[in-house]
Design goal:
The chain is mainly α. It is built from 7 helices and no strands. The protein has 2 domains: about 60 residues, no CATH class; about 90 residues. Helix 1 runs antiparallel to helix 2, helix 1 packs across helix 3 and helix 4 packs across helix 5.
């Protein structure tokens, strides 16, 4: 992986696919294969580290709110959207970690071709996790919006007409 053009193309692929519910790792493996560049070695680790750094910098205020909310939910028993979301993210990460741990030991020594099949599992899990979290956020926002809006009181039109006379 010495060509700067290869690095730029793979950086663009990583940037476009990382935040979508698809496997950016599979794309980083497939693109060089399809274009005949050979394997990229540990360069994909550098691409993922760059993505992590970019996301951490871009969302640092949100991360702080989530962490503070999670702390307050456990220690001070204060309920907030950020606190709930923090702990939902922690809970959603646990199954992925367990599956990754199991697959890491199970797949040890298996060729890269066979590992390509496992990217489908990663893709399906990401779609599930994304859908669950998105659905939860929509429901929580709807609850907050409904609670903030005050509905006018329904008065009986007949009684109102008598009051005016």
């Amino acid at each position: 992986m010495t060509n700067i053009i290869h690095a730029i193309v793979l950086g663009i692929v990583q940037g476009l696919t990382e935040l979508l519910p698809i496997s950016s790792s599979a794309h980083l493996y497939a693109i060089p294969k399809l274009l005949g560049w050979g394997e990229i070695g540990d360069f994909d680790v550098a691409l993922h580290a760059g993505t992590l750094l970019a996301i951490a910098i871009f969302f640092w205020k949100d991360w702080i709110k989530l962490i503070v909310g999670g702390y307050k939910k456990v220690v001070k028993k204060e309920d907030s959207f950020e606190g709930k979301m923090f702990w939902y993210l922690v809970a959603a990460t646990i199954p992925g970690g367990i599956i990754g741990f199991i697959l890491d030991h199970f797949l040890e020594g298996i060729s890269k071709k066979e590992i390509e099949i496992c990217h489908m599992e990663e893709y399906l899990w990401n779609v599930f996790e994304y859908g669950v979290i998105t659905d939860y956020i929509k429901r929580e926002k709807a609850k907050e919006t409904k609670a903030k809006t005050t509905e006018p009181k329904n008065e009986n039109k007949a009684s109102t007409s008598f009051k005016n006379k």
